[in-house]
Every structure is written in structure tokens, then in C-alpha cells.
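With this grant's support, we have paired protein sequences with C-alpha cells. One protein thus recorded is set out beneath this paragraph:

_____
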Amino acid sequence: MSNHSRPFRPPLHVLAKPIGPLCNLDCDYCFYLKKQPLFPAGHNFRMSDETLEIFIRRYIESHDGPEVAFAWQGGEPTLCGAPFFAKAVALQQRYANGRRISNALQTNGTLLDDEWGAFLHEHRFLVGLSVDGPRHLHDRHRQDKHRQPTFDRVMRGLAVLQKHHVEVNALTVVSSTNVSHPIDVYRFLRDAGFRHLQFIPLVERATVTGDDDSAAPARHAAVTAETVPAAAYGSFLNRIFDRWVHNDVGKIFVREFDTALAAWLDQPSSLCVHATECGRSLALEHDGSAYACDHYVYPSDRLGHLRDTPLDALVSSPAQVTFGRAKSTTLPRQCRACPVRFACNGGCPKHRFLATAAGEPGLNYLCAGYRAFFAHIDTDMGRMATLPQAHRPAADIMRH
């Protein structure tokens, strides 16, 4: 079949991990640090030049649209060094074939310097900076290999990005520690100069083999001490929403609020957590192995190697299609009848390990928080959803 007669392929997304699970920090809630047992002892975790080129070429080839968005994560991707990413940019330009290329990099920020700042600005990288709030909250869990706090180093990294005018978002993990301080966290991020925020709920369970996180969690394993309480996560979002909706609409952009507004506008979710189905966002390890999702990097969820199979074939494989559709087909009856299903859609499958009141499996651990949040924002979101029809900006909600 020629390219001219081939049906348009929906976009796929790949989260590339060029340094695998290696990191210079040792955050005590990190779910990815313990992936090293997936690889043999003495393994070199740096993505080879050959794998890098294959990935860039095949990822661009997997897109039919005019733009290709690359996302780089880890571990800590800056351990690869700026020259590695300079090589990646050069390869993107070689294989772009007229497409626009964008890059996003998630980092803890502690290794950033002026060389990095100049590079990221020149090539218009979007940087996601991991920061969990003010010093006393951030340093509780985000420490280095010597159990030393990292807040000052992260703030120096932020200063580098701001000095070089790099676009930067805040990625905040909401844990059992900072969940009780929503306004302190929000005010700190806003005052630090962030305009785009993400509040990622921490939900982790013990694994079958103790400390070996290369194995999937046991179905009935208890959550970790750092895991955010479900109801508290909903309260955290509600309190920030109330501050935001009265003061900062159009000035501060919160991913969870933007995603919710899309649901009230009857638009598909851009966030996989609340999409009807998933399965088109793969994780690519440094060795070229592709996995079903960043949260499903387990041996049983390995789809294959990009050297052997094109990425669009991996994402369209029967195993991956079944994985993606299961998000919808395995929803328990309680979820199907829920009044906020249109906005929630059951949440991330990784977190669906509780039973409903009727004993049916598949209820999301965060259900209580999601229900409280979506119910709390209903009136304001309904008002905001009417503003575009009147050709008015969303910020007009603050006039009510």
C-alpha cells in the first residue's frame, strides 16, 4: 500500500529514556529507580548512537501529521550530557522531511548550567522541572544518593532556565507530605515564576519481590507510606482550584484544570489518565525496548525492540490494542454509572486495584479524590465552558 492510499494513522507518543532508570538523586518515592534489575549486571545504561538514530528516524516515520513531539525522561536524562541531545537534534533535522519537531525534557534540574541553558533555549526545549513545593516540603522526599537535600540545587537549575529564557513547567508530585499544604505549594510555585503546573498524585504499592520493582505489584499489596491519601488529594486540588478560579485564570495554567475543562467542553482528554482508552503512549528504554506505558515497564509488558519492529506496528499490536481498550472494557459497574465518569473515565489503570462497594474489582485508588474534585468544580467549569460560545476568554469567569 502506498503512502497516498494508506489511512491516516492517529498520533502515537513515546516517552524516551536515554539513560534508563539511572539518576543522580535517590527520591524515596521514585517508582523508576528500581528498574535496573530488568537489565544484566554491568549493563551500560546510556542509549547508543545507533539506537538513538533508529529511534529518531522511526519515530518521525510513525507520524502522518505535520509535527512530531519528542519527550525525554529518565531516570535523569541530563546525565547524558548536552552533546547527546545536540546529536539528537541534528538527527531530527536530518529525518524531519518537512515536519516541525519539538522537544520536551523532564529533569530534576540539579545538573543544569549555562551550557545547558543556552542549548535548551537555542533549540526551544520545553523543560519540566520536578519540584514539590517550598524547601521543607520538597526536601522531605527529594534527596540525593547521600541523603542530602536538593532544594537549593533545583532552585539554581530554575534560575539557569529563567536566565536563558527557557520555557519551563513545574511537575509536582503530591505525596502524603505536601498534600496537607496545597496553598503553600501553589503560592510557592506561582511566586517562583512558574506559569504551567502539574500536580501528579503519588500512588505506589509494594512489589511481589520486595525491593525489586522490575516485578509488577501484588494485586492486594498495601500502598507505601509516601502514597497520597485519596480523599486528601481531592481536597488538595479543590483548595488550589478555589484560589486559582478567583485570581489566576489566564495567568496560571494547571494541567488538571485544563484537562477537566476539556471534559466539560465535550472534548477528548489530552491526558491519558482521563482518556476513554489508552495504549498509544509507549515507554522506550535506552536499549531500544518498547513497553506498554511508562507505568508498565515490566517484563510482561515488553512489546519488542524498535530495531526489529516499527513503532506504529508496536503500538498497533494485538497485545497493545487489548491493553489500551481494557481501560474502558474493564470499568466496574460503579464507574459506568458514576456522574463524573465523563471527566474521570476510571483514571490510570495502574491505580485501579481496589474493589467497589459491591465487591467488583477495578476501582481506582483515587476514586474518592476524583469524585470530590470533579463534583466541586462542576459549577465553575460549567460556566467556563459557556464562555467560548460567547467569544469570551476563560478568564472572564473571575468576574462572577
In short: Residues 208-212 have pLDDT under 50 and may be disordered. The radius of gyration is 21 Å.
